[in-house]
Amino acid sequence: MALAAFTGASLLAACTLGPDYKRPATPTAATYKELEGTGWKAAEPADAHIRSAWWEVYDDAALNALEQQVADANQNVQAAQARFRAARSQVAQFRSQFFPVVTMSGGYSRARSSENVKFKSTAGKTLDDWVVGADATWEPDLWGRVSRSVEGARANAQASAADAQSALLSMQAELATDYFELRGIDRERQLLDDTIAAYKEAVELTQNRYKGGIATDGDVAQAQTQLRTTQAQAIDLGVQRAQLEHAIAILIGQPPSTFSLPVAPLVAVPVIAPVGVPSTLLERRPDIASAERHVVNLNAQIGVATAAFFPNLILSVTGGLEATNFSQWLLAPSRFWSLGPSLAGTLLDFGGRAAQKAEAQASYDEGVAQYRQTVLTAFGQVEDNIAALRVLEQEAQTQDGAVEAAQRSLAIMSNRYKNGAITYLDVVVAQTTALTNEREAVSIARRRMAASVALIKALGGGWDVTSLPTDEQLTHPDEAGQPASAPAATRG
Question: What is the pLDDT of residues 69-87, one digit of tens each?
Fold first, then answer.
Protein backbone atom coordinates (compact mmCIF):
# COMPACT_ATOMS: atom_id res chain seq x y z
CA MET A 1 0.00 0.00 0.00
CA ALA A 2 2.83 2.35 0.85
CA LEU A 3 4.47 1.64 -2.51
CA ALA A 4 1.21 2.25 -4.36
CA ALA A 5 0.67 5.52 -2.51
CA PHE A 6 4.21 6.63 -3.28
CA THR A 7 3.80 5.75 -6.95
CA GLY A 8 0.54 7.65 -7.19
CA ALA A 9 2.08 10.71 -5.58
CA SER A 10 5.01 10.50 -7.98
CA LEU A 11 2.74 10.43 -11.00
CA LEU A 12 0.72 13.37 -9.77
CA ALA A 13 3.89 15.35 -9.31
CA ALA A 14 5.18 14.48 -12.77
CA CYS A 15 5.84 17.40 -15.10
CA THR A 16 7.33 18.00 -18.52
CA LEU A 17 10.42 20.16 -18.47
CA GLY A 18 11.82 22.26 -21.29
CA PRO A 19 10.24 24.88 -23.57
CA ASP A 20 6.96 24.16 -25.32
CA TYR A 21 7.33 24.37 -29.09
CA LYS A 22 6.29 27.43 -31.08
CA ARG A 23 6.85 27.61 -34.81
CA PRO A 24 9.68 30.07 -35.58
CA ALA A 25 8.66 33.24 -37.36
CA THR A 26 9.77 33.60 -40.99
CA PRO A 27 9.91 36.62 -43.31
CA THR A 28 6.97 36.33 -45.72
CA ALA A 29 5.94 38.78 -48.44
CA ALA A 30 2.33 39.60 -49.30
CA THR A 31 2.74 38.53 -52.93
CA TYR A 32 5.37 37.34 -55.38
CA LYS A 33 7.32 40.18 -56.96
CA GLU A 34 7.71 38.47 -60.33
CA LEU A 35 3.94 38.30 -60.82
CA GLU A 36 3.86 42.05 -61.35
CA GLY A 37 3.43 42.99 -64.97
CA THR A 38 2.77 39.43 -66.14
CA GLY A 39 -0.99 39.64 -66.48
CA TRP A 40 -1.26 36.48 -64.37
CA LYS A 41 -3.77 36.84 -61.58
CA ALA A 42 -3.56 35.21 -58.18
CA ALA A 43 -5.46 31.92 -58.04
CA GLU A 44 -9.02 31.96 -56.82
CA PRO A 45 -9.97 29.61 -53.95
CA ALA A 46 -11.48 27.14 -56.41
CA ASP A 47 -8.24 26.66 -58.32
CA ALA A 48 -5.67 27.65 -55.72
CA HIS A 49 -4.26 24.15 -55.32
CA ILE A 50 -2.36 21.91 -57.73
CA ARG A 51 -3.75 18.43 -58.15
CA SER A 52 -1.61 15.70 -56.63
CA ALA A 53 -1.18 13.99 -60.02
CA TRP A 54 0.12 17.31 -61.31
CA TRP A 55 1.70 15.92 -64.50
CA GLU A 56 -1.78 15.26 -65.91
CA VAL A 57 -2.14 18.99 -66.67
CA TYR A 58 0.12 18.41 -69.69
CA ASP A 59 -2.36 15.91 -71.18
CA ASP A 60 0.33 13.45 -72.31
CA ALA A 61 -0.63 9.78 -71.97
CA ALA A 62 2.95 8.55 -72.29
CA LEU A 63 4.12 10.87 -69.50
CA ASN A 64 1.20 9.81 -67.29
CA ALA A 65 2.15 6.14 -67.71
CA LEU A 66 5.79 6.83 -66.81
CA GLU A 67 4.95 8.93 -63.76
CA GLN A 68 2.81 6.09 -62.38
CA GLN A 69 5.94 3.95 -62.07
CA VAL A 70 8.11 6.38 -60.11
CA ALA A 71 6.56 5.84 -56.66
CA ASP A 72 6.71 2.07 -56.86
CA ALA A 73 9.94 1.49 -58.75
CA ASN A 74 12.32 4.42 -58.21
CA GLN A 75 15.04 3.30 -55.82
CA ASN A 76 15.69 6.72 -54.31
CA VAL A 77 12.01 6.90 -53.37
CA GLN A 78 12.12 3.38 -51.94
CA ALA A 79 15.16 4.30 -49.83
CA ALA A 80 13.42 7.43 -48.50
CA GLN A 81 10.34 5.43 -47.56
CA ALA A 82 12.53 2.88 -45.77
CA ARG A 83 14.09 5.72 -43.77
CA PHE A 84 10.60 6.80 -42.77
CA ARG A 85 9.75 3.31 -41.55
CA ALA A 86 12.93 3.30 -39.48
CA ALA A 87 12.05 6.67 -37.96
CA ARG A 88 8.53 5.46 -37.20
CA SER A 89 10.00 2.44 -35.39
CA GLN A 90 11.98 4.82 -33.18
CA VAL A 91 8.68 6.29 -31.99
CA ALA A 92 7.65 2.85 -30.75
CA GLN A 93 11.02 2.40 -29.06
CA PHE A 94 10.68 5.63 -27.09
CA ARG A 95 7.01 4.98 -26.26
CA SER A 96 7.96 1.64 -24.72
CA GLN A 97 9.77 3.57 -21.97
CA PHE A 98 6.39 4.62 -20.56
CA PHE A 99 5.81 1.01 -19.47
CA PRO A 100 7.59 -1.46 -17.17
CA VAL A 101 10.34 -3.73 -18.42
CA VAL A 102 9.66 -7.34 -17.44
CA THR A 103 12.31 -10.04 -17.68
CA MET A 104 12.18 -13.72 -16.87
CA SER A 105 14.86 -16.25 -16.06
CA GLY A 106 15.07 -19.89 -15.12
CA GLY A 107 17.83 -22.38 -14.50
CA TYR A 108 19.15 -25.51 -12.87
CA SER A 109 22.55 -26.13 -11.32
CA ARG A 110 24.24 -28.85 -9.25
CA ALA A 111 27.18 -27.84 -7.08
CA ARG A 112 29.32 -29.10 -4.19
CA SER A 113 30.80 -26.84 -1.53
CA SER A 114 34.21 -27.33 0.04
CA GLU A 115 34.32 -29.24 3.35
CA ASN A 116 37.01 -26.90 4.64
CA VAL A 117 34.79 -23.83 4.82
CA LYS A 118 33.89 -22.91 8.35
CA PHE A 119 30.52 -21.69 9.49
CA LYS A 120 28.74 -22.72 6.26
CA SER A 121 25.81 -25.09 6.52
CA THR A 122 26.35 -26.51 3.02
CA ALA A 123 30.07 -27.33 3.51
CA GLY A 124 30.89 -30.65 1.91
CA LYS A 125 27.42 -31.11 0.47
CA THR A 126 26.30 -31.57 -3.12
CA LEU A 127 23.07 -29.69 -3.81
CA ASP A 128 20.69 -29.15 -6.68
CA ASP A 129 19.26 -25.69 -7.30
CA TRP A 130 16.04 -25.25 -9.28
CA VAL A 131 15.04 -21.61 -9.84
CA VAL A 132 12.59 -19.61 -11.94
CA GLY A 133 11.94 -15.91 -11.46
CA ALA A 134 10.74 -12.65 -12.99
CA ASP A 135 11.87 -9.06 -12.61
CA ALA A 136 9.89 -5.91 -13.38
CA THR A 137 11.36 -2.41 -13.33
CA TRP A 138 9.63 0.86 -14.14
CA GLU A 139 10.85 4.42 -14.18
CA PRO A 140 7.97 6.91 -13.92
CA ASP A 141 8.37 9.85 -16.27
CA LEU A 142 8.59 12.39 -13.45
CA TRP A 143 10.34 15.16 -15.37
CA GLY A 144 9.07 14.50 -18.89
CA ARG A 145 12.26 12.93 -20.26
CA VAL A 146 10.32 10.15 -21.96
CA SER A 147 7.52 12.50 -23.06
CA ARG A 148 10.00 14.84 -24.70
CA SER A 149 11.82 11.91 -26.29
CA VAL A 150 8.57 10.61 -27.78
CA GLU A 151 7.67 14.13 -28.91
CA GLY A 152 11.02 14.44 -30.66
CA ALA A 153 10.78 10.97 -32.22
CA ARG A 154 7.33 11.74 -33.61
CA ALA A 155 8.55 15.00 -35.11
CA ASN A 156 11.55 13.21 -36.57
CA ALA A 157 9.29 10.58 -38.12
CA GLN A 158 7.08 13.29 -39.61
CA ALA A 159 10.19 15.00 -41.00
CA SER A 160 11.25 11.69 -42.53
CA ALA A 161 7.78 11.29 -44.07
CA ALA A 162 8.11 14.77 -45.58
CA ASP A 163 11.58 13.86 -46.86
CA ALA A 164 10.09 10.78 -48.53
CA GLN A 165 7.51 12.96 -50.26
CA SER A 166 10.21 15.46 -51.23
CA ALA A 167 12.23 12.65 -52.80
CA LEU A 168 9.16 11.45 -54.68
CA LEU A 169 8.37 14.94 -55.95
CA SER A 170 11.99 15.46 -57.05
CA MET A 171 12.02 12.20 -59.00
CA GLN A 172 8.64 12.96 -60.59
CA ALA A 173 9.77 16.44 -61.62
CA GLU A 174 13.08 15.13 -62.95
CA LEU A 175 11.21 12.55 -65.01
CA ALA A 176 8.89 15.18 -66.47
CA THR A 177 11.81 17.49 -67.25
CA ASP A 178 13.79 14.73 -68.97
CA TYR A 179 10.70 13.60 -70.84
CA PHE A 180 9.95 17.04 -72.27
CA GLU A 181 13.63 17.55 -73.07
CA LEU A 182 13.61 14.29 -75.03
CA ARG A 183 10.42 15.29 -76.86
CA GLY A 184 12.05 18.63 -77.65
CA ILE A 185 15.00 16.80 -79.19
CA ASP A 186 12.54 14.75 -81.23
CA ARG A 187 11.02 17.99 -82.44
CA GLU A 188 14.45 19.40 -83.27
CA ARG A 189 15.34 16.20 -85.13
CA GLN A 190 12.12 16.51 -87.11
CA LEU A 191 13.12 20.08 -87.98
CA LEU A 192 16.57 18.95 -89.10
CA ASP A 193 15.14 16.08 -91.13
CA ASP A 194 12.83 18.49 -92.95
CA THR A 195 15.75 20.85 -93.51
CA ILE A 196 17.93 18.03 -94.81
CA ALA A 197 15.24 17.13 -97.33
CA ALA A 198 15.19 20.77 -98.50
CA TYR A 199 18.99 20.88 -98.67
CA LYS A 200 19.05 17.72 -100.81
CA GLU A 201 16.79 19.48 -103.27
CA ALA A 202 19.15 22.47 -103.18
CA VAL A 203 22.13 20.22 -103.96
CA GLU A 204 20.25 18.70 -106.88
CA LEU A 205 19.34 22.18 -108.11
CA THR A 206 22.93 23.44 -108.01
CA GLN A 207 24.19 20.30 -109.73
CA ASN A 208 21.67 20.73 -112.55
CA ARG A 209 22.58 24.40 -112.87
CA TYR A 210 26.27 23.47 -112.92
CA LYS A 211 25.65 20.95 -115.68
CA GLY A 212 23.79 23.65 -117.59
CA GLY A 213 26.69 26.04 -117.20
CA ILE A 214 24.67 28.44 -115.05
CA ALA A 215 26.28 27.70 -111.66
CA THR A 216 29.85 27.11 -110.62
CA ASP A 217 31.41 24.09 -109.00
CA GLY A 218 31.78 26.30 -105.92
CA ASP A 219 27.97 26.51 -105.66
CA VAL A 220 27.76 22.73 -105.71
CA ALA A 221 30.44 22.43 -103.03
CA GLN A 222 28.70 24.96 -100.79
CA ALA A 223 25.34 23.19 -101.13
CA GLN A 224 26.93 19.83 -100.34
CA THR A 225 28.75 21.28 -97.33
CA GLN A 226 25.55 22.74 -95.97
CA LEU A 227 23.81 19.37 -96.40
CA ARG A 228 26.56 17.36 -94.73
CA THR A 229 26.85 19.79 -91.83
CA THR A 230 23.15 19.60 -91.14
CA GLN A 231 23.18 15.79 -91.40
CA ALA A 232 25.97 15.71 -88.81
CA GLN A 233 23.95 17.96 -86.50
CA ALA A 234 20.97 15.61 -86.79
CA ILE A 235 23.12 12.60 -85.97
CA ASP A 236 24.62 14.39 -82.98
CA LEU A 237 21.17 14.74 -81.41
CA GLY A 238 21.13 10.96 -81.04
CA VAL A 239 23.64 11.18 -78.18
CA GLN A 240 21.45 13.51 -76.13
CA ARG A 241 18.32 11.49 -76.85
CA ALA A 242 19.94 8.23 -75.83
CA GLN A 243 21.21 9.72 -72.56
CA LEU A 244 17.79 11.14 -71.70
CA GLU A 245 16.13 7.82 -72.52
CA HIS A 246 18.57 6.05 -70.22
CA ALA A 247 17.93 8.59 -67.45
CA ILE A 248 14.18 8.06 -67.72
CA ALA A 249 14.65 4.29 -67.53
CA ILE A 250 16.61 4.63 -64.29
CA LEU A 251 13.99 6.97 -62.81
CA ILE A 252 11.28 4.34 -63.32
CA GLY A 253 13.49 1.52 -62.01
CA GLN A 254 14.27 -0.20 -65.31
CA PRO A 255 17.62 -1.16 -66.86
CA PRO A 256 18.35 1.23 -69.74
CA SER A 257 18.94 -1.72 -72.06
CA THR A 258 15.30 -2.83 -71.75
CA PHE A 259 13.62 0.55 -72.14
CA SER A 260 12.92 2.74 -75.15
CA LEU A 261 10.56 5.57 -76.06
CA PRO A 262 9.17 5.96 -79.58
CA VAL A 263 9.92 9.20 -81.38
CA ALA A 264 7.24 11.84 -80.81
CA PRO A 265 7.98 15.56 -81.33
CA LEU A 266 7.13 17.96 -78.50
CA VAL A 267 3.55 19.23 -78.67
CA ALA A 268 2.85 20.05 -75.00
CA VAL A 269 2.59 23.69 -73.97
CA PRO A 270 3.81 25.16 -70.66
CA VAL A 271 1.25 25.41 -67.87
CA ILE A 272 1.21 28.31 -65.43
CA ALA A 273 0.49 26.72 -62.04
CA PRO A 274 -1.67 28.68 -59.57
CA VAL A 275 0.93 30.14 -57.22
CA GLY A 276 -1.35 31.56 -54.53
CA VAL A 277 0.24 33.84 -51.94
CA PRO A 278 3.69 33.24 -50.41
CA SER A 279 2.36 32.38 -46.95
CA THR A 280 0.62 29.26 -48.30
CA LEU A 281 3.98 27.91 -49.47
CA LEU A 282 4.85 27.09 -45.85
CA GLU A 283 2.10 24.45 -45.89
CA ARG A 284 2.71 23.15 -49.41
CA ARG A 285 6.43 22.35 -49.55
CA PRO A 286 7.53 19.01 -48.07
CA ASP A 287 11.09 20.23 -47.55
CA ILE A 288 9.79 23.17 -45.48
CA ALA A 289 7.63 20.79 -43.44
CA SER A 290 10.65 18.53 -42.88
CA ALA A 291 12.81 21.44 -41.72
CA GLU A 292 10.06 22.65 -39.36
CA ARG A 293 9.57 19.15 -37.88
CA HIS A 294 13.32 18.93 -37.28
CA VAL A 295 13.02 22.11 -35.22
CA VAL A 296 10.28 20.42 -33.15
CA ASN A 297 12.62 17.50 -32.50
CA LEU A 298 15.49 19.79 -31.50
CA ASN A 299 13.18 21.73 -29.17
CA ALA A 300 12.18 18.46 -27.49
CA GLN A 301 15.85 17.59 -26.96
CA ILE A 302 16.20 20.71 -24.81
CA GLY A 303 13.57 19.21 -22.52
CA VAL A 304 15.42 15.89 -22.42
CA ALA A 305 18.64 17.70 -21.47
CA THR A 306 16.78 19.69 -18.78
CA ALA A 307 15.33 16.52 -17.23
CA ALA A 308 18.86 15.20 -16.71
CA PHE A 309 19.30 17.71 -13.86
CA PHE A 310 16.73 15.84 -11.73
CA PRO A 311 16.95 12.41 -10.05
CA ASN A 312 15.44 9.26 -11.53
CA LEU A 313 12.95 7.15 -9.61
CA ILE A 314 13.01 3.42 -10.37
CA LEU A 315 10.40 0.99 -9.05
CA SER A 316 11.41 -2.69 -9.11
CA VAL A 317 9.74 -5.99 -8.25
CA THR A 318 11.41 -9.41 -8.19
CA GLY A 319 9.76 -12.76 -7.53
CA GLY A 320 10.02 -16.45 -8.28
CA LEU A 321 10.42 -20.00 -7.02
CA GLU A 322 13.61 -21.71 -5.84
CA ALA A 323 14.19 -25.15 -4.29
CA THR A 324 16.83 -27.81 -3.87
CA ASN A 325 14.47 -30.66 -4.65
CA PHE A 326 12.53 -30.68 -7.88
CA SER A 327 9.45 -32.08 -6.13
CA GLN A 328 9.28 -29.01 -3.89
CA TRP A 329 10.18 -26.48 -6.58
CA LEU A 330 6.67 -25.37 -7.53
CA LEU A 331 5.21 -25.33 -4.03
CA ALA A 332 4.29 -22.14 -2.16
CA PRO A 333 7.10 -22.37 0.44
CA SER A 334 9.64 -22.13 -2.42
CA ARG A 335 8.63 -18.62 -3.38
CA PHE A 336 10.85 -15.57 -2.94
CA TRP A 337 10.24 -11.89 -3.68
CA SER A 338 11.46 -8.38 -3.18
CA LEU A 339 10.22 -4.91 -4.09
CA GLY A 340 11.11 -1.32 -3.47
CA PRO A 341 11.85 2.03 -5.06
CA SER A 342 15.26 3.56 -5.66
CA LEU A 343 16.14 7.18 -6.29
CA ALA A 344 19.36 8.12 -8.07
CA GLY A 345 20.71 11.39 -9.36
CA THR A 346 23.94 13.14 -10.20
CA LEU A 347 25.18 15.54 -7.53
CA LEU A 348 28.28 16.84 -9.25
CA ASP A 349 29.42 16.49 -12.86
CA PHE A 350 31.47 19.69 -13.21
CA GLY A 351 29.19 21.27 -15.82
CA GLY A 352 28.57 18.19 -17.97
CA ARG A 353 24.78 18.40 -17.95
CA ALA A 354 24.82 22.16 -18.36
CA ALA A 355 27.03 21.72 -21.42
CA GLN A 356 24.61 19.16 -22.85
CA LYS A 357 21.72 21.55 -22.40
CA ALA A 358 23.70 24.37 -24.00
CA GLU A 359 24.50 22.05 -26.91
CA ALA A 360 20.80 21.20 -27.31
CA GLN A 361 19.92 24.90 -27.30
CA ALA A 362 22.59 25.65 -29.91
CA SER A 363 21.35 22.77 -32.09
CA TYR A 364 17.83 24.20 -31.83
CA ASP A 365 19.08 27.64 -32.91
CA GLU A 366 20.85 26.02 -35.85
CA GLY A 367 17.66 24.19 -36.81
CA VAL A 368 15.66 27.43 -36.71
CA ALA A 369 18.19 29.11 -39.00
CA GLN A 370 18.08 26.16 -41.41
CA TYR A 371 14.28 26.23 -41.40
CA ARG A 372 14.22 29.94 -42.23
CA GLN A 373 16.83 29.40 -44.94
CA THR A 374 14.70 26.61 -46.44
CA VAL A 375 11.71 28.97 -46.52
CA LEU A 376 13.72 31.73 -48.19
CA THR A 377 15.13 29.28 -50.73
CA ALA A 378 11.62 28.07 -51.53
CA PHE A 379 10.40 31.63 -52.09
CA GLY A 380 13.39 32.22 -54.34
CA GLN A 381 12.69 29.12 -56.42
CA VAL A 382 9.09 30.18 -57.00
CA GLU A 383 10.19 33.69 -57.98
CA ASP A 384 12.89 32.27 -60.29
CA ASN A 385 10.49 30.09 -62.22
CA ILE A 386 7.75 32.73 -62.44
CA ALA A 387 10.37 35.05 -63.91
CA ALA A 388 11.63 32.31 -66.25
CA LEU A 389 8.14 31.62 -67.57
CA ARG A 390 7.41 35.34 -68.00
CA VAL A 391 10.68 36.09 -69.81
CA LEU A 392 10.62 32.93 -71.93
CA GLU A 393 7.05 33.66 -73.01
CA GLN A 394 8.18 37.05 -74.31
CA GLU A 395 11.29 35.52 -75.85
CA ALA A 396 9.23 32.83 -77.60
CA GLN A 397 6.98 35.45 -79.18
CA THR A 398 9.98 37.46 -80.40
CA GLN A 399 11.75 34.33 -81.63
CA ASP A 400 8.68 33.24 -83.59
CA GLY A 401 8.86 36.59 -85.38
CA ALA A 402 12.55 36.02 -86.10
CA VAL A 403 11.78 32.57 -87.55
CA GLU A 404 9.13 34.02 -89.86
CA ALA A 405 11.51 36.78 -91.02
CA ALA A 406 14.33 34.29 -91.62
CA GLN A 407 12.05 32.01 -93.65
CA ARG A 408 10.92 34.93 -95.79
CA SER A 409 14.53 35.94 -96.32
CA LEU A 410 15.43 32.37 -97.35
CA ALA A 411 12.56 32.23 -99.83
CA ILE A 412 13.65 35.56 -101.35
CA MET A 413 17.29 34.49 -101.62
CA SER A 414 16.36 31.16 -103.16
CA ASN A 415 14.28 32.87 -105.86
CA ARG A 416 17.02 35.39 -106.58
CA TYR A 417 19.55 32.58 -106.90
CA LYS A 418 17.33 30.71 -109.33
CA ASN A 419 17.11 33.91 -111.38
CA GLY A 420 20.90 34.25 -111.35
CA ALA A 421 20.91 37.51 -109.40
CA ILE A 422 23.15 36.27 -106.54
CA THR A 423 25.66 33.53 -105.78
CA TYR A 424 24.83 30.45 -103.75
CA LEU A 425 26.85 31.83 -100.82
CA ASP A 426 23.99 34.27 -100.14
CA VAL A 427 21.58 31.34 -100.07
CA VAL A 428 23.82 29.47 -97.62
CA VAL A 429 23.83 32.45 -95.28
CA ALA A 430 20.04 32.66 -95.42
CA GLN A 431 19.74 28.89 -94.86
CA THR A 432 22.03 29.02 -91.84
CA THR A 433 20.17 31.97 -90.36
CA ALA A 434 16.77 30.29 -90.82
CA LEU A 435 17.89 26.98 -89.33
CA THR A 436 19.60 28.66 -86.39
CA ASN A 437 16.45 30.63 -85.55
CA GLU A 438 14.21 27.57 -85.92
CA ARG A 439 16.43 25.52 -83.61
CA GLU A 440 16.50 28.36 -81.11
CA ALA A 441 12.69 28.43 -81.13
CA VAL A 442 12.66 24.73 -80.27
CA SER A 443 15.23 25.32 -77.51
CA ILE A 444 13.04 28.03 -75.98
CA ALA A 445 10.05 25.68 -76.08
CA ARG A 446 12.07 23.07 -74.13
CA ARG A 447 13.17 25.66 -71.59
CA ARG A 448 9.58 26.83 -71.11
CA MET A 449 8.46 23.27 -70.37
CA ALA A 450 11.33 22.83 -67.89
CA ALA A 451 10.39 26.09 -66.15
CA SER A 452 6.75 25.03 -65.98
CA VAL A 453 7.66 21.73 -64.31
CA ALA A 454 10.10 23.51 -61.99
CA LEU A 455 7.39 25.95 -60.89
CA ILE A 456 5.01 23.12 -60.00
CA LYS A 457 7.81 21.43 -58.07
CA ALA A 458 8.67 24.70 -56.30
CA LEU A 459 4.99 24.99 -55.25
CA GLY A 460 5.02 21.51 -53.69
CA GLY A 461 3.43 19.44 -56.45
CA GLY A 462 -0.01 19.32 -54.85
CA TRP A 463 1.22 18.21 -51.42
CA ASP A 464 0.25 19.95 -48.20
CA VAL A 465 1.13 19.58 -44.54
CA THR A 466 -2.12 17.79 -43.69
CA SER A 467 -0.66 14.74 -45.45
CA LEU A 468 1.90 14.28 -42.68
CA PRO A 469 1.26 11.17 -40.56
CA THR A 470 -0.62 11.86 -37.35
CA ASP A 471 0.39 10.63 -33.89
CA GLU A 472 -2.16 7.85 -34.25
CA GLN A 473 -0.73 6.76 -37.61
CA LEU A 474 2.79 6.78 -36.21
CA THR A 475 1.70 4.70 -33.21
CA HIS A 476 -0.45 2.26 -35.24
CA PRO A 477 1.00 2.09 -38.77
CA ASP A 478 -0.97 0.50 -41.55
CA GLU A 479 -0.10 -2.97 -42.74
CA ALA A 480 1.49 -1.69 -45.94
CA GLY A 481 3.94 0.39 -43.96
CA GLN A 482 3.77 3.33 -46.36
CA PRO A 483 4.34 6.88 -45.14
CA ALA A 484 1.15 8.85 -44.81
CA SER A 485 2.75 11.65 -46.83
CA ALA A 486 2.82 9.54 -49.99
CA PRO A 487 -0.80 8.46 -50.50
CA ALA A 488 -1.97 6.68 -53.61
CA ALA A 489 -3.37 9.93 -55.01
CA THR A 490 0.04 11.58 -54.88
CA ARG A 491 1.62 8.63 -56.60
CA GLY A 492 -0.86 8.94 -59.41
Answer: 999 999 999 999 999 999 9
Contact 266, 184 (CB under 8 A): yes
What is the DSSP-derived secondary structure letter of residue 484? T
**Helix intervals (H) in 110-214:** 145-211
Helix/strand/coil for 328: helix
**Residues 294-337: pLDDT tens digits?**
999 999 999 999 999 999 999 999 988 888 888 888 888 888 88
Give the integer Cα–Cα distance in Å for 365 and 481.
Answer: 33
On the 0-12 / 13-18 / 19+ scale of CB atoms within 10 A, 283 is middle
Q: Which of 73, 83, 50, 53 is nearest to 488 (CA)?
A: 53
Q: Would you say the C-alpha torsion 201, 207, 213, 218 has a positive or negative sign?
A: positive
pTM value > 0.90: no
Cα distances (angstroms) measured from residue 217 to each of 24, 207, 212, 221, 410: 77, 8, 11, 6, 21
Report the candidate in 55, 57, 48, 39 with the shortest Cα–Cα distance to residue 278: 48
The angle at the Cα of 403, spanning 398 to 407, to the nearest 5 degrees, equals 150
